[in-house]
Amino acid sequence: MSKLEFGPMPDAQGYFGEYGGQIIPPELQAVMNDIDKAYEEIRQMPEFQDELKTLFADYIGRPSALFHARRLSEKLGGAQIFLKREDLNHTGAHKVNHCLGEALLAKYMGKTKVIAETGAGQHGVALATACALVGIPCEIHMGQVDIEKEHPNVVKMKILGCTLIPVTRGTATLKDAVDSAFEEYLKDPQNYIYAIGSVVGPHPFPKMVRDFQSVIGEEAREQFLSRFGKLPDYLTACVGGGCNSIGLFTAFLNDEDVQMVGVEPAGKGLDTDQHSATLTLGKPGQIHGMKCYVLETEDGEPMPVHSIASGLDYPGVGPQHSYLKDLGRVQYATATDQECLDAYMMLSRVEGIIPALESSHAVAWAIRTAPTLSKDKTILINISGRGDKDADYVAELLKL
Ligand SMILES: *Cc1c(COP(=O)(O)O)cnc(C)c1O
């Protein structure tokens, strides 16, 4: 196996190449630097590492399984397909990996409240779960329009004991929920913590969230090596903010022979204005306190984005992905809403595994690519979450 040499990232100022940083007022930079300091402290502490390891095992159910999708591989007639089953985690997706880390950090720092926004409610449920476990108050801001659309997640958050703040201003969707949650946070940033839901936002969040998610790739690398004595040829994962994909990729970055592909939503087509392919069609800019690739309108506002998978519609993307794209270490591809639906149905019917619509983007890439590769090649897909949450919506679209 040949080796590349990626050192530790980001640098001390939070930069991955030219991306990342802390594009926020100096008072907030000081608060972020305190979070970074506390994080660097606990990650060196054996007690913290032990606690996290035990919770990963006994609470989340890690390591998540590595599954050989034999029937799908046979049907496609090319590369062998493997699935990393993050859908089997407690709460049904990968987000709990970093929410647990963030909740433990908040507790260590003596924060009195964890605040976040949520769009479709996935981040809200994972965070409310982690806060219930750790025993720290949690406040989730959610647009009224989303509250009406996402009833199951709304009631779950209430059952888990978080305070749900309905946001009625503006369009009453994710963007307004972000503003509302951020205003609440600014009332007392010393005592509150804003728990960011992906590898985005100001330093140290892109680093911290990546570190908590890196368990995915560390496990997969070990599972593959011990079972097959070699590494996969391709890794693929969907990219919204980019945390499940960076979580899979990190342990393999220095393995030169392992090719990595992040899959963005092409929505209704890259030639329409209804997609969310930030790395594919965006350009370097600024959003939410960081420098990264951004999809912008002509007047420099974040573009309204679209994807069939609500967890992927974000006009920015993690700074580390922006850097890895420029370096060419990771390739970024896209899948349309239609390809994603087809992939959702195919994995369900051929393997009995219903993937989240988000994860289905990576499945769609594998379905397209496997037949072009020989049978001795392997593709590992990260199944970031389970698709029960999307079942009613898919049934309606396909008139099942
Ligand atoms: C939130 C979510 C995503 C997208 O987030 P990333 O930060 O890109 O990983 C992907 N899959 C599922 C199941 C999600 O809930």
TrEMBL record:
Top-rank taxon, per record: Bacteria
List the Gene Ontology MF annotations in alphabetical order. tryptophan synthase activity
Q: Which InterPro entries match?
A: Trp_synth_b_CS, Trp_synth_beta, Trp_synth_beta/beta-like, TrpB-like_PALP, TrpB-like_PALP_sf
Q: What is this protein called?
A: Tryptophan synthase beta chain
**Residues with the N6-(pyridoxal phosphate)lysine modification:** 95
User: What is the role of this chain?
Assistant: The beta subunit is responsible for the synthesis of L-tryptophan from indole and L-serine.
Named cofactor requirement(s): pyridoxal 5'-phosphate
Q: In which pathway does it act?
A: Amino-acid biosynthesis; L-tryptophan biosynthesis; L-tryptophan from chorismate: step 5/5
Q: Name one Pfam family in it.
A: PALP
Q: How does it assemble?
A: Tetramer of two alpha and two beta chains.
Q: Which organism is it from?
A: Nitrincola nitratireducens
Sorted alphabetically, the keyword list is:
Amino-acid biosynthesis, Aromatic amino acid biosynthesis, Lyase, Pyridoxal phosphate, Tryptophan biosynthesis
Q: Which residues form the Tryptophan synthase beta chain-like PALP domain?
A: 62-385
Instruction: Locate the coiled-coil region(s) and give their ranges.
Output: none
Q: Which enzyme type, at the first EC level?
A: lyase
Q: Which GO terms describe its cellular component?
A: cytoplasm
Reactions the enzyme catalyzes: (1S,2R)-1-C-(indol-3-yl)glycerol 3-phosphate + L-serine = D-glyceraldehyde 3-phosphate + L-tryptophan + H2O
- Known EC number: 4.2.1.20
Similarity remark: Belongs to the TrpB family.
